[in-house]
Amino acid sequence: MIMKEIIILLVGLLIMVLGVLIGVAFLTLLERKVLGYIQIRKGPNKIGFIGILQPFSDAIKLFSKEQTFPNFSNYFLYYFSPVISFMLSLIIWMLIPYYFNLISFNLGILFFLCCTSLGVYLVMVAGWSSNSNYALLGGLRSVAQTISYEVSLALIMMSGVIFIMSFNLVILTEYQNLIWFMFIMFPLSLCWLSSSLAETNRTPFDFAEGESELVSGFNIEYSSGGFALIFLSEYSSILFMSLFFVLMFMGGYMLSLLFYLKLVFISFIFIWVRGTLPRYRYDKLMYLAWKNYLPISLNFLMFFIGLKIFFL
């Protein structure tokens, strides 16, 4: 019986991974289309109906290209860091409180923080192992940026945890039946959204791969499969952070069309920001994290703790 359950669980996980990969494929297509229309041009529209097969064409091209690597790189770490990065970005998807057959986490929020913290090391190792100055600088920037914004993310999450007095995401959903947390902590939800942009290295916080000064940052030496895996893990993280925003502030997980529309809308905001805003200055990015978001999230945390004590 246990063996049967394990097999069902593994099949469920496999279906979930396939779903995430297909979601990522069409998220890249959506991004290219939206950026195209923002810049008053057409996006991909040649392959298949209105370019719908473009992501699969790109995937085949990238994975069939010749794998090159720098002579002076630390080959083992250079080769495996994108693979592990991609695996980590898929493992984190187990956290979502699906209503069927998969894993239920009592400490889901802690699991999320552990997985996002591990992602820092992989970007750093990917940058360092290439043995290139540009890649190393990109890796170092990414580490400083991600660690800074994880502090504000953790504190914002703590406000939600104090509200529901649990780390379980299913309970988070139950508490939002009558009112979304977005209306109760609106400033925190905006801080969370911009912190997620910084956490996933997206414009206007894409310092890990600043083309103007670092050529392409930590992934400069990667081509073909390695680049594709870094690309996939980045877009999988974007999709996950959008989903987590919906879980935290917009009513939680529901098996309904509205839930998926909310998810697509938040993903669309990630792309919209990329098409609209220029890159920040690096010192301003750090200033924003430590001088603005940290005090705001700490003040809200104290406020919610006070409320909880008062009403208990």
From TrEMBL:
Pfam families given in the database record: NADHdh
Keywords associated with the record: Membrane, Mitochondrion, Mitochondrion inner membrane, NAD, Transmembrane, Transmembrane helix, Transport, Ubiquinone
**Localization per Swiss-Prot or TrEMBL:** Mitochondrion inner membrane
* Topology in the lipid bilayer: Multi-pass membrane protein
**Gene Ontology biological-process entries:** aerobic respiration
Q: Which protein, by its recorded name, is this?
A: NADH-ubiquinone oxidoreductase chain 1
A GO cellular component annotation here is: mitochondrial inner membrane
Query: Any transmembrane segments, and where?
Result: 6-27, 76-100, 107-129, 149-171, 178-198, 227-250, 257-273, 293-311
For the protein in the UniProt heading, the enzyme class is translocase
**Function, as annotated:** Core subunit of the mitochondrial membrane respiratory chain NADH dehydrogenase (Complex I) that is believed to belong to the minimal assembly required for catalysis. Complex I functions in the transfer of electrons from NADH to the respiratory chain. The immediate electron acceptor for the enzyme is believed to be ubiquinone.
- Give the originating organism: Monema flavescens (Moth)
Entry EC number(s):
7.1.1.2
